[in-house]
Specification:
The complex is a heterodimer of chains A (466) and B (435). Chain A is of the alpha+beta class. In chain A, 36% of the residues lie in helices and 19% in strands. In chain A, strands 15-12-14-13-17-18-16 form a seven-stranded antiparallel beta sheet, sandwiched between helices. Chain A has a five-stranded antiparallel beta sheet with strand order 5-6-10-8-9. Chain B has four domains: 100 residues, Orthogonal Bundle (Fumarate Reductase Iron-sulfur Protein, Chain B, domain 2); 52 residues, no CATH class; 136 residues; 110 residues, Rossmann fold (3-Layer(aba) Sandwich). Classes of the chains: A alpha+beta (466), B alpha/beta (435). The interface between A and B is large, with 41 and 38 residues.
């Protein structure tokens, strides 16, 4: 493949407008990774198409010559979903950023795949609507990437993740065929292929347009800070809130190291004298918020809450969320990190938190926990020094142990970041080979050549031999 | 982020500083979203994260700059929007400054580019030369279209477009001396007369002198001052920039010795960002490191300084102001509320244009060196400003004033001109025709 590099680059240049192809050896280096920086590979070329037709032309060409393709949105993946391989053409959707249609009567928005998550909400905010899934990287991450990873976010506890808010896509298949799945309605006829595509990590095709649900903004929303003197108490409080039937719009957890990191960036006024903090957001009318909050406060008191602080203004509320949503990036102030994404049953939250701490201690590493507690989606950040190969190896091993712990507790490897390259080799801890074979058969039905983001998701061993 | 520098490389203090900056970046990509060039071009290489990576690769491999790297670094506006967004605290400013110096030292630009840059560096920082050049531009204006059709000469055509039709004579605000106050003296400050601003809009510093005099603040226009060095600093001309910085440090500290100094007042936020960074720029100069840090600590934007004087709250007047926050104000100096509070207290109704974090495309000499991107950003900025339906525009940087004025009929003034008017000064000439 690499021997044919010059020919491939010349051919791609014919398929794309000027300024839409990166082939210079210097220019390719910045595309070697995404937000999972532990792993890096410089691609063969980067195509930045402006239209679905151009995406189709590039895919058709690549499939004809068996060239692997890696789709890329904003490159914010924490599992390495957009990390290339040396023989691959990256197809970046960053030039496809148009909002095509906003349909308030049907409460839908149709956008190109490179539109950032937050842009959708910003575009409909003046009319009182929003797009619900809100990954912490929503400022930068694209809707195409969100679909690839079935991304979640803080407010997904109440509103569901990407798959629950996606109505239709336009997608280019491996050979350049353009198909449409779903539409503007809540139900589509036939197989729920949209459900299959959402979360398929760019292996079934490249989504170029998406139609998503818009929701009406609540009357009011109020994040409240609950401080605890131990992570276990905070975890148990979360389990009891959810267990009692209350679904706040968000329950976010931060332990002491995470609080320090976030406060340093956002200056949100998080209590610094607690061991663990829950950000619980309630919404609705004033009376509704007061009533929900009263029930949650009762439960929190039973679990030894030491601080309760309500945000007093929209500015304060915004800062509370800014701090939380910047947690991973802000960690860069003190160390390199890898971010885990395991999900566990709420009844096991306290236990898994304790054991996570024990695993980190065993490897001599620090860990900061900041995550979506309401749906048990944990994000231990393992802090290490990436310039020290031994430290990096320890961090990776600790990460593997923590993810296995989540699976063994009845949870799963990934709540919202995707398998990518990071968790690929742990898939056999979660699934049997028979499970994986069936998943790979479904994948092969869309991409018989295995050219679409091929090195991700499935362990390299045990793949069908083409 | 992982870095790989040999110990010998890290012995170079510039490299050591940049390595520490790179180590903070976790490649999260948040910065891409608020970068004007990424938003416009949609290529990671034209985003902060892409540029950081290009710079890292170039410095790690101790390689001269090449065309690909230079293209994407040149497209950076140095608006520093990325630094406001970055949760990790990456000092992109110091990194890209280092890269620009490295480019200047190791890369030979094409002849036309070199010529344009040499002319800019030889004219803009010198008010006398700049005034002459603008007068000549009046004669040259008919040739702007022609110049713009000749590739390498295009920037000269753009310069002619940007040149004002009337050139003001030298102003009292540029003449060295002390503007004493009658009655109770509340403070003593030095002012930056600057280079391009007094030629393009002498009214700004004149308004500053009047307002401060009424408020009881003695203002010194120092001897032997001039350009603060920002313009050449952004072009990577390190020696010329440091020379300017040393000259300014000497000029202002002489004012201190002569009679005390509460603050160095700056009325162009682009200059303010650089002056507040003198401490860093001259940190390796044993003779100046301490003095430069002292000047940086004394530097205040005029709105920052006025905020400390507790001006009275005035009655509302029927004039709505769209406040355009210059990048150097909001990102470079993190001054966001002060100008708006001052305007509001002075009786103006203040509106924030949408996408306020995005640059107007002025960015020092950027509108001359990168006219296409600059023009796109200008149009976007003006759309957002005009959507506020305000009567006038206020901002705190001469570059933005010149840039925005060429694209809208709305009058654009410096914040201090409006404040001077509100607190007893003359009505700004630009507003004379309006009620």
């Amino acid at each position: 493949m690499l021997d044919r590099r010059e020919t491939i680059v010349a051919d791609l240049a014919d398929l794309l407008p000027p300024g839409c192809l990166v082939s210079d050896v210097r220019g390719l280096v910045p595309f070697e990774t995404d937000a999972f920086i532990a792993y890096r590979r410089v691609p063969l070329a980067v195509a930045l198409p402006e239209t679905t037709a151009q995406v189709a032309a590039v895919l058709k060409y690549c499939s004809r010559y068996g060239i692997p393709v890696v789709p890329r949105g904003a490159g914010t993946s924490l599992s390495g979903g957009a990390i290339p391989q040396e023989d691959a053409v990256v197809i970046g959707l960053s030039k496809m950023t148009r909002i095509l249609d906003i349909d308030f009567p049907n409460r839908t928005a149709t956008v190109e795949a490179g539109v950032t998550n937050i842009s959708i909400s910003e575009a409909v905010m003046p009319e009182g609507f929003f797009y619900a899934p809100d990954p912490s990287s929503q400022l930068a991450c694209t809707i195409g990437g969100n679909i690839g990873m079935n991304s979640g976010g803080a407010h997904c506890l109440k509103y569901g993740v990407t798959t629950n808010n996606l109505l239709g896509v336009k997608m280019v298949l491996f050979d350049g065929t353009i198909i449409e799945l779903g539409g503007k309605a809540l139900d589509a006829a036939g197989y729920d292929l949209l459900g299959l595509v959402c979360g398929s990590e760019g292996q079934l095709g490249i989504v170029t347009e998406a139609t998503v649900r818009l929701l009406a903004r609540p009357e009011g929303a109020r994040p409240v800070l609950f401080g605890f003197s131990s992570s276990e108490e905070a975890g148990a409080c979360v389990a009891e809130v959810i267990g009692s039937g209350i679904i706040p719009v968000a329950i976010e957890f931060m332990d002491k190291p995470a609080i320090g990191i976030c406060e340093a960036f956002a200056k949100a006024g998080y209590p610094m004298d607690v061991e663990a903090l829950l950000i619980v957001e309630v919404e609705g009318s004033e009376a509704e918020m007061d009533a929900t909050l009263a029930s949650i406060i009762d439960i929190a008191r039973r679990h030894g809450v030491t601080t309760i602080r309500e945000s007093q203004s929209a500015t304060e509320a915004a800062l509370i969320w800014k701090g939380r949503k910047s947690a991973f990036g802000a960690t860069g102030r003190i160390a390199d990190y890898i971010c885990m994404d395991g999900t566990v049953p709420l009844s096991k939250l306290s236990e898994v938190l304790r054991k996570t701490g024990e695993i980190a201690a065993r490897y001599g590493l620090r860990v900061a926990n900041v995550f979506h507690a309401g749906d048990g989606n944990m994000h231990p950040l393992i802090l290490y020094n990436i310039n020290d190969p031994e430290d990096a190896a320890r961090a990776e091993a600790a990460g593997n142990d923590i993810l296995k712990l989540c699976v063994d507790a009845g949870g799963c490897l990934t709540g919202e970041h995707g398998v990518g390259i990071e968790k690929r080799d742990l898939m056999l801890h979660q699934f049997t080979q028979a499970d994986l074979n069936q998943q790979m058969a479904a994948r092969a039905a869309f991409d018989p050549q295995w050219i679409m983001n091929p090195s991700k998701v499935f362990p390299l061993e045990g793949r069908p031999t083409a | 982020m992982q870095t790989s520098f040999a110990p010998a490389q890290l012995a170079d203090p510039q490299i050591a500083t940049s390595e520490q900056i790179l180590r903070k970046c976790v490649h999260c990509g948040f910065c891409t979203a608020t970068c004007p060039t990424y938003v416009t071009l949609g290529n990671e290489l034209d985003s902060p994260r892409g540029r950081i990576y290009l710079i890292k690769d170039m410095l790690e491999n101790d390689r001269p700059a090449d065309e690909e790297v230079v293209t994407h670094i040149d497209r950076c506006l140095s608006c520093l929007s990325c630094m406001t967004t970055c949760p990790s605290g990456v000092n992109y400013m110091h990194l890209v400054d280092h890269a620009r110096v490295h480019i200047e030292k190791t890369y030979e630009r094409p002849l036309g580019d070199r010529l344009v840059r040499a002319v800019l560096a030889a004219v803009l920082p010198y008010p006398g030369r700049f005034r002459l050049a603008l007068k000549a531009a009046g004669l040259g204006r008919p040739f702007a279209g022609l110049l713009k059709r000749i590739g390498p000469l295009k920037p000269f055509g753009t310069m002619l477009d940007l040149a004002p039709s009337k050139v003001a004579p030298a102003s009292i605000a540029d003449t060295p001396g002390t503007h004493r106050v009658d009655g109770l003296k509340r403070g003593r400050v030095a002012i930056l007369s600057g280079c391009a601003q007094p030629v393009l809009r002498p009214e700004i510093n004149e308004a500053t002198l009047r307002l401060l005099a009424r408020l009881g603040v003695e203002v010194v226009v120092p001897e032997n001052a001039g350009c603060c060095g920002a313009l050449v600093h952004h072009m990577g001309r390190e020696e010329q920039a440091l020379e300017a910085a040393r000259r300014m440090v000497d000029a202002w500290l002489k004012v201190k010795v002569d009679g005390g100094l509460d603050a160095v007042i700056i009325t162009a936020s682009g200059c303010g960002t650089t002056i507040k960074d003198y401490g860093h720029m001259l940190r390796l100069d044993p003779d100046y490191a301490e003095k430069a840090a002292e000047v940086s600590a004394l530097a205040r934007d005029i709105t920052e300084y006025l905020s400390g004087l507790e001006l009275p709250v005035l009655e509302k007047r029927a004039l709505t102001v769209a406040y355009h926050s210059a990048c150097s104000m909001q990102h470079g100096q993190k001054i966001t509320m002060a100008p708006k509070v001052l305007l509001s207290n002075a009786g103006f109704t203040v509106r924030d244009p949408g996408e306020g974090h995005l640059c107007c495309g002025s960015a020092g000499t950027y509108n001359i060196l990168q006219p296409e991107i600059s023009t796109t950003l200008k149009a976007r900025k003006i759309r957002n400003i005009e959507a506020t339906k305000a009567d006038i525009i206020a901002t705190g940087n001469i570059g933005c004033i010149t840039q925005i004025a060429t694209g809208t009929a709305m009058p654009i003034l410096h914040t201090v001109e409006l404040l001077d008017w509100a607190y007893g000064g003359p009505k700004p000439a630009l507003l004379e025709t309006r009620d």
